[in-house]
Amino acid sequence: MRTDPLSIAGAQETPTQAGVETGAGSLLWMLGLLVRRKWVVVLVAAVVFMGMAAVIAKLTPSYRATALVLLPSVPVDDPRTAEEKTVSPMLPSFIIASEAAVLGSEEVARRVIETLDLQDEPSFAAKPSWRTRLRNWGASFFGGNEVGASAWSADELERDRLLQIYMKKLSTYNDGLSTAALISFTWSDPHLAAKIVNAHAATYIGMQVERRTLALQHVVDLLSAQMQERRADVEAATHALSSAQAASGGNSPLVASVSGSGAASVAGSLPDLQSDLDRARGALAQTQSRLVEATSRLHDGQLQSADFVADDAKVVSRASVPTRQIFPKVVLFLLVAAIVSLAAGLAVAMVVDHLASRWRRNAAQVESIGLPILGAISLNVSSRLSSNRGIRVRFWEEIRFVRNRLLHESGKPARVVLVVSAMPREGKSLAAAALAQSFAATGRRVLLLDADLRHGAGDHACVPSLGKTGLSDLLGASGGKGRSGQRDAIMAVEGTSLHVLAAGNAAGSDANAIDALASPVLPKLIEALRRDYDVIVIDSPPLNVVSDATSLATLADQTLLLCHIGRFSPAALDQTITLLRACRAEISGVVLTGNSVFAKEGILRHGAPVPSRAQKGLTKLRPTLTVASLVKAYPTPQPVGGASLPEAAAASPS
Questions:
Q1: Predicted TM-score of the model (pTM)
Q2: 463 has a pLDDT exceeding 80
Q3: Pairing label, strands 314-317, 416-421
Q4: I need a labelling partner for 339 at 20 to 30 A (CA). Which of 21, 88, 473, 575 fits?
C-alpha cells in the first residue's frame, strides 16, 4: 500500500500553524477571563487609574526656556600673521567643540548663580533628602557628626548644591558642524527659566569677549617687548659704532661701511615693528568697541549679524517666557495610566480566577471523599461579619440553605446537631451560632451549647462572657463541689426562641470538666435537654487538635463537618472523617467555608440560590438579629423560667 506524501505533509502541523493556534487560544482565554471577571477588571482598573490620575494631577509642572547662540568660528588673530592666515581644516571644528564646552561649563553657571542671586530664590531652597534625614537621625542617635559637620563649610556646601541643581537643569546642544548652539533651562517657574537662560547667554558672551581682550592685550605686550629689544639693539650698535670711530679717528672705511649698513637695517625694521604695534592696538580698541556693541545688542535683543560665521559670539534668539509645560505630559501619562490600570485589572482577575479554580479543585476533592456537600458559606473567619446589608443577606441565605438541607434531606431528624471542624479557624463557632439562630427563626425552641471547654469563659468567639454558670459547672467542675441547676445556667436571648448554654466559669481552668465530657454525666444532660428543646446545636473544639469532639459525636443525631476551602488539607479531612466514623457518628455532610470572593460560585455550584436585588429588598433583618449581635453584644440574658418569649416567627430573619 502506497502512502501519498501530500497527505502526510498535510497531516503534519507546521510550527507556524502551531504558533497561530497557540496565540488564538491565548486570545480566547483572555476574552473568557474578561467575561468571567469583568467586574473585577473594571473595579481594579478604575481604582488604579484614579490613583494614578491623582498622582499625575499632583506632579509639579516644568517649563523649558530656550535661547540660540552663535559660537565664534575662528581663533584670535595674531596681528603679526594677519596677512597670511594658514589655518588647518580641523581647526574650526576643534574651536567650535571647545566653545561648546565652555558654554556648558560650571564657571558660566557659577557666574549666573552669583549674578541672579539664585541662592535667595525660594524654588532653589534646600530640601534635605530622606537619606540626609536618615543619616542625621543616625548621627544624633548613635553620636558623631551630622551631614553638615564636614571638612567643607556651610557656604561651600550650599554653593555646590546650587551648582549641582543648576547643571542638572541646564542643557546645551551643538552638532559639532555648525556654530549654532542651543541653551535651555528647565524649571517650575517659567519666568525664572527664561531669565536664567538669557543670563547664561550674556555671561558666556561676556566671558568670550574677556578672553579675546586678554589675548589681544597679550599680543600688544609681546610686540611692545620686541620693540624695546630692537631699540636696545640699535642703541648698543650705535654706542659700539661711536666707540669704534673714536678709536680709529673716524677715518676707517670698514667702520663707515658697518655704520651705514647697520643704520639702514635698523631704520628699515623700525617701521615694520611700529606698524605691527599700531595694528595690535587697533585690534584691541576694536575688540573693546565690540564689547560695548555686543552689550548694547544683548539688551536690545536683536540679531548682531546675518551670517553664521563670525569672530565673536552672538545671541540670535533670546529666551522668552514659555507657556507650554514639558512635564508632565498629561495625555501621554493618562494613556500609560490606562494601560497600566487595565494590566493591573487583568492581573488581579487572573489571581482571582486561579484562586477560584483552586476552590473548585478543592471542592472536587471533598466530593471525591463520598460525603454530600450541604452548602457553601461565604465566611471570612479572620474578621467579624461585615455590617454591609448585601453581605448579611447573602450570608443568611447560605445559612438557610444549610438548615433546610439538614431538616429535609437527612436520614435522622435534626434534634442534636454537632458542628465540628478538623482544624481551628475554619468558621465553626460562628457558623454554629448562625445555624442555631436560623433554626430558632422557624419557631423551634433551640439551644446553642458551647462544648468547647478548652477556652475560658468569655474567650470564645461565639458566646461572650455572660458572667453565669455554664456547661462546665453542670458537669461538676472544680472537683465536683456541687452542681448548678439548669435553670440558672441556660440563658434566653431576648426576643427569640434561642437559648444559650455557655462553656461556664470553670472552662479552661479545670481538667475535671474536660474529663467529664467522657463521663456518663454528659449523656444524661443531653437527654434532659432533648425534652426541653426541639433542636440542640453543639459547638465543639477542633477534632484533629483535641479529642473532646469524639465524645460529643456519639451523642449527636447529625454531625456537620466544616471545611475551609482556603486551608484545605486532604490528609486532615480524611483523618477527621476516620475519627468520626470510628465513633459511629452520623455525618450528614460537609459545609464549605471561605472568603466572600468565591461565595457566589460555591452557592451556585451546590444548588443554593443567590438572592436577587428584589429579594434583598424584601428580606427584613433587624440589627439585633444578625450574627454580629451574637458576637458583639447580647441583649440582657434572662433565665429560662423568666418572662414568656414573643412569637419567634415575628422576630426571625427568615
A1: 0.49
A2: no
A3: unpaired
A4: 21
